[in-house]
Amino acid sequence: MSKPKISLNKLGEYLDATPSRRRRIIQDQQNPEPFITTRYQDAREGIINFIAGGMVDDAKLLESAQELRENHYSTPFVQQDKRASAEAMEQFLDIADNIDIDGLRVERIDKTQSSIMEVAGVDVSIRPDAILKDEETGQIKGAIKLHFSKTHPLNEKSAGYVATMLKVYLENGNKESTIDPKKCYLIDIPTAKATTASKAHKKKMNDVEAACEEIDARWKKEEA
Over pLDDT 70: what percentage of the chain? Predict the structure, then answer.
């Protein structure tokens, strides 16, 4: 029997989903479609590079988006993905003013790097898109996590869970740093919202633990 696992963004969605949607999320995590993980890679890279550059060169980001639209691609899937990335990069400009990176250094995360947090027997894949460090001390202060799904955007409640889990993950792995909840961002592109973590996280983490206990039970039931 395989170990239950779920991505952080999907766990956020799960926490505020209907029973039928919860069942579907678990089934999708058990049998993921291989192409899903490759989607929006251009947007992810372009947006993080833009943030790391201080979010001052809007024209460069728009130019990159336009290039994605104009180029020709080998398959309809690739073409659709490139255009979706272009749209996401343009949409991000509506959110940029809500992200404060003053005094922070933005460090990109290797997409192959594993970032797992175990909760109630479930491996939660955290994978921040960028880490935010104090420019002077080098200490980790927060992180950025992007979310692109138009079909299942994260509402305020779901996004709050994701941002708070991001903060707890950073605190657990960086005892020497003081994590700033206001610098732990979940950026949902379709809804044009940037959500930060809660300062007090006990209640939210109790909800997360209860959800993971449910995921563990349902996962085992599906595989039985």
Answer: 96
